[in-house]
Amino acid sequence: MQKTIYTTLISLLLLTLGLAACKPSTPVDEVQNKNHDDPKKIELILFDCHFHGNKVHATPEQKGVKYLTREQVMILEEVPGKGWQISSKGVDRFIVQGGKEGVKSPDLSTIIDPAKRDWTDQTFIAEDQAGLANRQYGLIIKMYDKEGKEITGQFATNGEDKRHQFFFTARNIRPTKFGDPTMKFTDGDCQYMYYYYFDTNPWDKTLYDGAKYTGISNPIGLKGFMEFPVTEIRFELQLTLLHARSSKFSGKDGRPSPFYGMTPKQRATDVVDINLKGIPFVVFANAGEYLSTNTHDLSKLKPEERLLVEKLSDAACITEQEALDDLWYFPFGETPEHSLSEGRYL
Questions:
Q1: Helix (H, G, I), strand (E, B) or coil at 294
Q2: pTM as predicted
Q3: What gap in Å lies between CA 67 and CA 26, rounded to an integer?
Q4: What is the pLDDT of residues 87-133, one digit of tens each?
Q5: pLDDT at 4 over 50
Q6: CA 46 to chain centre
Q7: CA distances from 202 to 143, 199, 207, 244 (A)
Q8: What is d(CA 95, CA 127) in angstroms, rounded to the nearest whole number?
C-alpha cells in the first residue's frame, strides 16, 4: 500500500514537471526588446537626380554654386533635455524646385493617391513612375548610435525590414511670399509632396550594383526620391519610423501603407522609433524658371529673371546678389562632366 502511494506521488510529480516544461513561454514583445540600437544622429542626404531606365542617378554638382547646391545634407541630433535638433553642421532647410515648366497651377486631380496604387506590382521603372514634376530629388537616410557608429543596416536586416517603415508627411503647408495666398492646403496631402520608396536588397547596394528593387514589395524608406508638383510653397516634413510589434504589412490584403501615413491599426497597436517634426522644405520656384541673360548685374535682368532671384534670396535667406551669382552658374557656368560610373545611385 505504501509502495503504491509512493509510486502515485512520483507519477504526479513527473506529470507536474512535464506540464511545467510544456507550458508555453510568455511571448516576447519585440517593441520592448528591440533588435536594434536607438538612433541618436540622423543624416538626411537630398540630391538632384535623373534616371537611366530604372536606375536613379545623382546629377553632377554645378561648379561654383554656393547656396543652391545639387546635394544638401541635413544633420539631426538628439540633444539631452531638448530632443531632436537640426545641427549647424549641415543645412537648416531644404531648397528645391518643382512643378512642370510653363504650368503655373497644376491639375491636382490628376495626381494618384499612393494608397490606390497597385502595390502587388513588383516592377518599377523610375522614368515611367515619376513625372509629377520636371525635377526629382533623391533622399538617403543614414542613422548613427551615440558613439557615432552607423546603424542604418540594423533596420533592414535580421527580419527588422518587416517591422520598420519610414513615413513622409507634409505638415503646415503654406505659400511663400510669391505663392498664391488663396490656395487651401491640407496636412498630409500627397499632392504637394510625393515620395517614392526605392529600397533594395541588399539594402546598401544599388540597382547599378546589381541589387534587387524592393521599394514596392517591402518599403522601408532608407532611400527613395521625391517630387514637388506645386511650387512656391513651404512646409515642414514629419519623418516617422514605424516599429511594428509583429509585421508592418497590415494594410488591405496585407499591403504596406502609403508613404504619407500609418493605418489606424498601426497607430493603435504599434509604436514609432523616430518621430521628427519640423524639417523645413521650400519649393521656391518652378523647374522651368532660369536665367537667360548672361549678367551678374541685377539692373540688367528681365522682370521674370529678377523675380526668380528674389525667390531664391527669400528661400535661402541670402542677398539678391548672392542669389543671382548662384543662379548664373546653371545656364552659363562650366557644365559638369556626367559619368555613369560616378556619383550617387539609389
A1: coil
A2: 0.89
A3: 56
A4: 999 999 999 999 999 888 888 888 888 888 777 777 888 888 888 99
A5: no
A6: 9
A7: 17, 9, 10, 21
A8: 23
Beta bridge partners of 171: 236
How far, in Å, CA of 179 to CA of 282, rounded?
Answer: 11
303 vs 297: CA distance, rounded Å: 13
What is the spatial distance between Cα 127 and Cα 225, in angstroms, rounded to a whole number?
A: 12
Query: Alpha helix locations (H) across the chain?
Result: 2-22, 126-129, 264-269, 303-316, 320-332
Decide: helix, strand or coil at residue 274. Answer: strand
Closest CA to 205 of 50, 345, 47: 345
**Nearest of 173, 169, 179, 162 to residue 310 by alpha carbon:** 179
**Cell numbers linked to 179:** 505663392
What phi, psi does 139 have (nearest 5°)?
-135, 120
Quick one: residue 308, left, alpha or beta (phi over 0 = left, psi -120 to 50 = alpha)?
Answer: alpha
pLDDT digits (tens, 9 = 90+) for 149-160: 999 999 999 999
Cell of 210: 546589381
| DSSP code, position 22 | H
Beta strands in the chain (DSSP E): 41-52, 55-58, 71-79, 83-86, 94-98, 136-144, 164-175, 194-197, 200-201, 212-213, 223-227, 233-243, 271-286
